[in-house]
UniProtKB/TrEMBL annotation:
Protein name: C-type lectin domain-containing protein
GO molecular function: fucose binding; metal ion binding
GO biological process: regulation of cellular defense response; regulation of complement activation, lectin pathway
Domain of life: Eukaryota
Pfam families: F5_F8_type_C_2, Lectin_C
Keywords for this protein: Calcium, Disulfide bond, Lectin, Metal-binding, Signal
Species of provenance: Anabas testudineus (Climbing perch)
Purpose: Acts as a defensive agent. Recognizes blood group fucosylated oligosaccharides including A, B, H and Lewis B-type antigens. Does not recognize Lewis A antigen and has low affinity for monovalent haptens.
InterPro entries according to UniProt: BG_Antigen-Binding_Lectin, C-type_lectin-like, C-type_lectin-like/link_sf, CTDL_fold, FTP1, Galactose-bd-like_sf
């Protein structure tokens, strides 16, 4: 009796860690418009089976999602309406951490051979669960890509705690962006985190990435906005102490920290 109970409890624990990944930022090749309605990419994750993301008719359409974190993805479920223009045959699903060629540089999870319109179709990767932040659905051939709802199941992986956001924003806007994710602008506590940040920063598309480090000219000191003390630093020799300055790490070379006017726009790191 007790062993059965323990077995049930461990089963529940396993099931609990594997869950529907909520949220994320979606994109698609192009957006079909009709009667004042834009069939945008986010319609595939709005929880409504009747609203669909819909590309224009073109060669090699894709839809993708940035899950805003690293996940071990176990399955992808796709629902489409039973409509003559829906054709998922020979489409493919890609998973990985690269944004190159809109996610198509990642490894292929699986190719869609059977697809039932008007039903939920569950796909597992050919090689089992796959690690990744980006999921791309790629439709080969000259046709429209229609996705009414996409669900992705997986487990959030513990990562270095740094998430690179490849959007150029001012320091204040970057700070707000991280807060909307319930995160902070990056905090570099030691040489190990610096090494991870340096590695990640090479994936950015700006010459610097913002850190959560700010200068107060009234009190004349630098401080981490999460309140931690400034024990570790990696300053360049060209650090100015001026009002409205924040710290940014260079994305090449020795990944030194520079003071930058906070109205400049760079990619940035969010951290938990
Ligand atoms: Ca929908």
């Amino acid at each position: 009796m007790w062993s059965l109970l323990l077995l049930l409890m461990s089963l529940i624990a396993v099931l609990k860690t594997e869950e529907l990944i909520q949220g994320g930022k979606t994109h698609q090749t192009s957006e079909y418009e009709d009667g004042g309605v834009t069939y945008g990419s986010n319609r595939a994750i709005d929880g409504n089976l009747e609203t669909c993301a819909h590309s224009l008719k073109q060669s090699n359409s894709w839809w993708n999602i940035d899950l805003l974190g690293l996940y071990e993805i176990s399955e992808i479920i796709i629902y489409d309406v039973d409509h003559q223009h829906v054709d998922m045959t020979d489409s493919s699903i890609y998973i990985g951490n690269s944004t190159e060629t809109n996610g198509l540089a990642n490894s292929r999870c699986t190719k869609i051979t059977n697809f039932n319109k008007g039903k939920k179709n569950t796909f597992k990767c050919d090689e089992g669960s796959m690690l990744g932040r980006y999921v791309t659905i790629y439709s080969k051939g000259n046709r429209v890509l229609i996705l009414c709802e996409v669900w992705i199941n997986g487990t959030r992986k513990a990562d270095p705690g740094l998430m690179l956001i490849k959007e150029n924003k001012t320091w204040v806007d970057a700070l707000s962006y991280c807060r909307t994710l319930n995160m902070h602008l990056a905090y570099i506590s030691d040489i190990e985190v610096q090494a991870k940040a340096a590695f990640e920063s090479t994936q950015s598309n700006s010459p610097f990435v913002w850190l959560g480090l700010r200068y107060t000219c009234t009190l004349d000191f630098w401080f981490w906005i999460n309140g931690h003390s400034l024990d570790y630093t990696n300053w360049s020799t060209h650090t100015e102490k001026e009002c409205d300055m924040s710290a940014a790490m260079e994305t090449t070379g020795d990944h030194l920290w520079y003071s930058k006017p906070d109205n400049e726009t760079f990619n940035f790191f969010c951290t938990e």
